[in-house]
Amino acid sequence: HKLRADLDRAIADGAFLLHFQPIVGIGDGRTHGFEALVRWNHPTRGMVSPAEFISVAEESGLIVPLGAWVLRNAVEAAAQWRLLHPGEDVYVSVNVSARQFRGQFKGPEQSFARWVLDEIDRMGLPPASLLVEMTESLLLHDDGEVTAELAELRAAGVRIAIDDFGTGFSSLSYLRRLPVDVLKLDKSFIDTIASSAEQHAVVDMIVQLAAILQLQIVAEGIETEAERDLLVAMGCHLGQGYLFSRPLSYGDASQWLLEEA
Ligand code: G
Ligand code: G
Ligand code: MN
Ligand code: NA
Q1: Residues linked to residue 184 through DSSP beta bridges, in sequence order
Q2: What is the signed CA dihedral for 218, 220, 225, 226, rounded to 10 degrees?
Q3: Cβ count near 248 (within 10 Å)
Q4: Does ligand 2 come within 6 angstroms of the Cβ of 37?
Q5: Ligand 2 pocket: which of 220, 244, 246 to mutate (most atoms <8 Å of CB)?
Q6: What are the φ and ψ backbone dihedral angles of 256, each rounded to 5 degrees?
Q7: With 146 labelled, which of 110, 114, 188, 255 sits at a CA distance of 20 to 30 A?
Q8: pTM of the entire predicted model
């Protein structure tokens, strides 16, 4: 597999970079955090989307060092933003794959959770400046090991989000059992709230359910003012999407914060 061979060299070559998409208060547009999204600057193909290479990295195991690289760089970015804006508790949201929990971190004794907490501590960041995003399907298939480490992170103050929420048949009872703070409502729901009364009702129910369970909702992929206005009316406070901003380079994300300060 050519892509895989190229991928194996990419960390050493410094070919990965992070982009950051603002997560905003959808009513006032103010920035609460950024989702870190990895990009691969391939020597001949140019920018390759993670949609193409994350699954390959998961299969090969490269996701462990790559995920560590992503987390470390995301946390460093958050530390810089907090220096720029001492008044704003900007957080960084990082996508994490199940496979990363089975990686080796500084020796066989150390868990992924412990390693993450050490990285945050090393940067002098409060744990609440990190949000860990896990997909719903991953949590549904967990045998308890991942959930236990998420609970350890959460006990230390790191927040946990279910990414792509709504696509994995979650049940109410399952949500109450999981160590979770945030539901990232999948873009496929947002896409249809303005055109389908049924989808609108489903999202309205999810927002109410989240309030009962004391979970925060982040609506993903908001592209139009109509979508934003419907979400605000439902009582959904946070979101991200092209209406507000595309994913930005580190420099542009810093500039974005400066302009808001
Ligand atoms: O940014 P973009 O829309 O191309 O991202 C596509 C997918 O790649 C998203 O589903 C996102 O969750 C995933 N992704 C982006 N960055 C990372 C990362 O650092 N780690 C993992 N595991 N997935 C990522
Ligand atoms: O799966 P995950 O939610 O982690 O991935 C988020 C992906 O969605 C990123 O690849 C990001 O580039 C993309 N994205 C973010 N906002 C929008 C949007 O408003 N419209 C579309 N089409 N994609 C978006
Ligand atoms: Mn995500
Ligand atoms: Na998503």
Answers
A1: 218
A2: -90
A3: 17
A4: yes
A5: 220
A6: -55, -40
A7: 188
A8: 0.95
The alpha carbon of 22 is separated from its chain's Cα centroid by a whole number of angstroms, namely: 11
Q: How do residues 119-159 score in pLDDT, each as one tens digit? A: 999 999 999 999 999 988 888 788 888 999 999 999 999 99
3-state SS class at 182: strand
Per-residue pLDDT of 173-225, as tens digits, reads: 678 888 999 999 999 999 999 999 999 999 999 999 999 999 999 999 999 99
DSSP string, 57-117: HHHHSTHHHHHHHHHHHHHHHHHHHHHH-TT---EEEEE--GGGGGS--SSTT--HHHHHH
Question: Cα(24)–Cα(126) distance, rounded to whole angstroms?
Answer: 20
Q: Where are the domains of the chain?
A: 2-260
Second CATH level (architecture) for the domain 2-260: Alpha-Beta Barrel (3.20)
Q: Which of 113, 116, 120, 118 is nearest to 79 (CA)?
A: 120
Contact (CB, 8 A) for 32 and 24: yes
Hey, which of 11, 35, 38, 185 would you mutate to test ligand 1's pocket, going by the most ligand atoms within 8 Å of its Cβ?
Answer: 38
Of 58, 39, 60, nearest in space to 49 by CA: 39
Q: Report whether 236 contacts 26 (CB < 8 A).
A: yes
Question: What's 184-220 look like in SS3?
Answer: EECHHHHCCCCCCHHHHHHHHHHHHHHHHCCCEEEEC
